[in-house]
Design goal:
Layout: H1 3-7, H2 12-24, H3 32-50, E1 55-59, E2 62-68, E3 74-79, E4 94-96, E5 99-101, H4 105-118, E6 126-131, H5 142-151, E7 154-157, E8 166-170, E9 172-181, H6 197-209, E10 219-227, E11 237-246, H7 249-260, E12 270-279, H8 288-300, E13 308-311, H9 316-322, E14 327-328, E15 335-336, E16 344-346, H10 350-364
Parallel strand pairs: 3-6, 3-7, 7-14, 8-13
Antiparallel strand pairs: 1-2, 2-6, 4-5, 5-16, 9-11, 9-12, 10-11, 15-16
Length: about 375
């Protein structure tokens, strides 16, 4: 895209340049050095945009971007880590018409930049916090998020939108790891002397499927699974990751009890379960007031109604709501394909969403 094309979008040129820099600075959650690099870059960008650098804090061994008040009245939550291993999303940066592609461009580096530019000219008790472990459960940053949220009057989460809609409800999540211990033997000569961990895990997968409740939106999804050491050996170890979600906290407790009570079907097999509840549900009661206020601000700006949705994905907004805060989520990028090879950002939406954020923050600080 030429500079002439970009000029037609007003201040989109510096915003797009900031997004591109952050996307090109790949930052998978598990790579601490990569996360440190992206936070340092984000602080440099903040200096250029806002005139002052962010603090870079180490929380439980992980870098955190912190710009603004120490106990903010309005807390803006973001994350700079992505699900993409370095080099796994190619091309790293591409623009075609309104579509911008790159790893984490939608989830959620564009949202971070939109929030950063929205803070230009804002005076008052506000902070933008960007963590680096959101995609892997926020185990290091969750206490910080809950502490700040418990003292804030409003928590704005600049996670990506759903077709432009903000998010007024999210499922709670649980994460489990199951290890099945069996007994190895020769698959051809003496299969009867082994205890097949793969077969035992197959029984477990069927038991997990039976725990789902579609009427309540409860899902129990087997994800990563590994088993065995060679093609001619009875597997003595199998491992499985489980992603469980529900809009109901009681449902999460039911699933938790059932997973932890799993017993072997095969004689001689042993089951080991780790993990548990991760994020509590984000209930619409925690978002109603801010959503109504956001729609009022959007109308004053002459925007079309934002719209809202309840979604299966979780975020740090779940922790904020659990701490008692009023929350509004999904205020970030317009686009799609989060966590997918089709991830994309709408170029023409960037400035409008940032301008809306600026007006919304000012309204909240009145």
């Amino acid at each position: 895209m030429t500079s002439e094309n970009l000029a037609s979008y007003g201040r989109i040129d510096p915003m797009l340049s900031a997004i591109e820099a952050l996307v090109r600075c790949e930052s998978p959650s598990e790579d601490i050095e990569a996360c440190r690099n992206v936070v340092a870059l984000a602080s440099d960008i903040a200096t250029r945009v806002l005139g002052t650098p962010a603090q870079i804090k180490e929380i439980e061994g992980r870098p955190v971007f912190w710009w603004g008040a120490q106990e903010p009245q309005v807390l803006i939550l973001a994350h700079l880590d992505t699900v993409w291993p370095i080099g796994s999303y190619l091309p790293l940066w591409d623009i075609s018409g309104d579509v911008v592609r790159g790893p984490g461009v939608f989830d959620m580096k564009a949202g971070f930049v939109q929030a950063l530019f929205a803070l230009k000219g804002i005076e008052g008790s506000v902070a933008l916090i960007a963590t680096t472990d959101e995609e892997i459960g926020s185990f290091s940053s969750r206490e910080l998020i809950k502490d700040l949220s418990s003292k804030a009057q409003a928590v704005l989460v600049v996670e990506s939108s759903l077709d432009g809609k903000v998010k007024t409800g999210r499922k709670g999540t649980s994460m489990y790891q199951i290890h099945v211990h069996g007994l190895a033997s020769h698959a051809g000569l003496e299969p009867e002397k082994g205890v097949n961990a793969t077969v035992e895990m197959a029984h477990i997968v069927l038991k997990l499927a039976a725990l789902e409740d579609s009427k309540l939106g409860t899902t129990v999804v087997p994800t990563l699974m590994h088993s065995g050491n060679s093609a001619n050996t009875i597997p003595d170890l199998a491992t499985l990751e489980i992603d469980a979600r529900s809009f109901s906290h009681d449902e999460l407790l039911r699933i938790d009890a059932a997973v932890k009570a799993l017993t072997p079907t095969l004689a001689g097999a042993r089951i080991e379960v780790t993990g548990g509840l991760n994020r509590p549900p984000l209930q619409p009661a925690s978002t109603k007031a801010l959503y109504e206020r956001a729609e009022k601000v959007a109308a004053e700006l002459g925007m079309a109604p934002l719209g809202c949705a309840e979604v299966g994905g979780a975020s740090d907004g779940n922790f904020a709501a659990a701490a008692g805060a009023q929350v509004l989520d999904g205020l970030g990028a317009v686009g799609g394909g989060a966590h997918a090879p089709s991830e994309w950002l709408s170029l023409k939406s960037i400035e409008e969403r940032s301008n809306f954020m600026h007006a919304f923050i000012k309204d909240l600080l009145k």
